UniProtKB/TrEMBL annotation:
Keyword terms: Cobalamin, Cobalt, Metal-binding, Methyltransferase, Transferase
Lineage per the UniProt record: Bacteria, Pseudomonadati, Candidatus Omnitrophota, Candidatus Aquitaenariimonas
SUPFAM superfamilies attached to this UniProt entry: Dihydropteroate synthetase-like (SSF51717)
GO molecular function: cobalamin binding; metal ion binding; methionine synthase activity
PANTHER family referenced in this protein's UniProt entry, alphabetically: METHIONINE SYNTHASE (PTHR45833:SF1)
Species whose genome carries this gene: Candidatus Aquitaenariimonas noxiae
GO cellular component terms listed in the entry, alphabetical order: cytosol
Family of the protein in this entry: Belongs to the vitamin-B12 dependent methionine synthase family.
UniProt keyword Metal-binding, yes or no: yes
Alphabetical GO biological process terms: homocysteine metabolic process; methylation; tetrahydrofolate metabolic process
Keyword Metal-binding found: yes
Name of the protein described by the UniProt record: Methyltetrahydrofolate--corrinoid methyltransferase
């Protein structure tokens, strides 16, 4: 399971504040803590309010590089921010993300290739997030076809079916689990998948419980990666245990410690 830490996001008040005041130690701490807690990668998002997202992305990456060479997922809808992020973050980074429109794929797939980066493809296009399962599968197939056509290795591609909050789109939560299972029929080997897990609990009062319950269900439905809060220990323990029960790791009494130590 690819674990991507979500905490360096200007959506969070502490990060927004750190960006404003150039407080490097807050960013250092968030980077180190998430990796120690089991994140394989860190999602980096300059946030919704910044006046200069490129400069913010530069500052965040340079600050993170003072403490770790870990791979980074560059989370931005702006092409120039993504490209700058890939340049600064170096090999093994990830583009988060592209939509499934041809115009977007024609830019982002070659960009991923150029920087030897992984690529998240969202199953949405200009028209927005489709409700229909079949449309989601069609968009996933379209992303994969484009990557194959342009020689981007499919092991570097992750399809994101887009998790919506349970309090506004309840039926979509169950549907997304079906979609994860149906994705497996699209290609052989099946495509890798990723979700922004915390979306599911936005605006609810039981965030941690909802997040970890949904993560276990999604892992059982074949999910291969997730953008999560890795400092939520119960979430990480639930994920590790789900993978154990799905026979992905060998049982021993100390399987949680063993996983954490890799
Ligand atoms: N798919 C992909 N990338 C993504 C998402 C996705 N990146 C962003 C997001 N979704 C995943 N990351 C987060 C980060 C934070 C929160 C949710 C998802 C979150 N933040 C608090 C909130 O909104 O309540 C912020 C408030 C605070 O605590 O200060 O929930 O789906 N590819």
């Amino acid at each position: 399971m690819l674990v991507i830490g979500e905490l360096i996001n200007g959506m969070y008040q502490n990060v927004e504040q750190a960006i404003k005041t150039k407080n490097r130690s807050i960013i250092h701490k968030l980077a180190k803590e998430q990796l120690e807690a089991g994140a394989d990668m860190l999602d980096i998002n300059a946030g919704p309010h910044g006046a200069d997202p490129k400069e913010t992305m530069r500052w965040l990456i340079e600050t993170i590089r003072e403490v770790t060479p870990a791979p980074l997922a560059i989370d931005s809808t702006k092409l120039d921010v993504v490209e700058l992020g890939l340049k600064l973050a170096g090999e093994g980074s990830m583009i988060n993300s592209t939509k499934a429109d041809d115009e977007k794929l024609d830019i982002y797939v070659p960009l991923a290739k150029k920087y030897k980066a992984k690529l998240i493809g969202l199953t949405m296009d200009k028209k927005g997030v489709p409700r229909d399962k079949n449309v989601k599968c069609e968009l996933a197939a379209k992303i994969l076809a484009k990557c194959m056509e342009m020689d981007l290795p499919l092991e570097d591609v992750y399809i994101d079916p887009i998790v919506l909050p349970v309090n506004v789109a309840q039926a979509q939560c169950a549907e997304l689990l079906d979609v994860l299972r149906e994705f497996k029929l699209i290609s052989d080997p099946p495509p890798q998948t990723v979700v922004g897990l915390s979306n599911v609990s936005q605006g609810t009062k039981q965030r941690s419980l909802i997040n970890r319950t949904y993560l276990v269900m999604a892992v059982a439905s074949g999910l291969s990666g997730a953008i999560v809060d890795p400092l939520d220990k119960e979430l990480m323990d639930a994920m590790i245990t789900a993978e154990l029960l799905l026979n992905k790791n060998i049982y021993c009494d100390s399987y949680i410690d063993a996983y954490r130590k890799r």
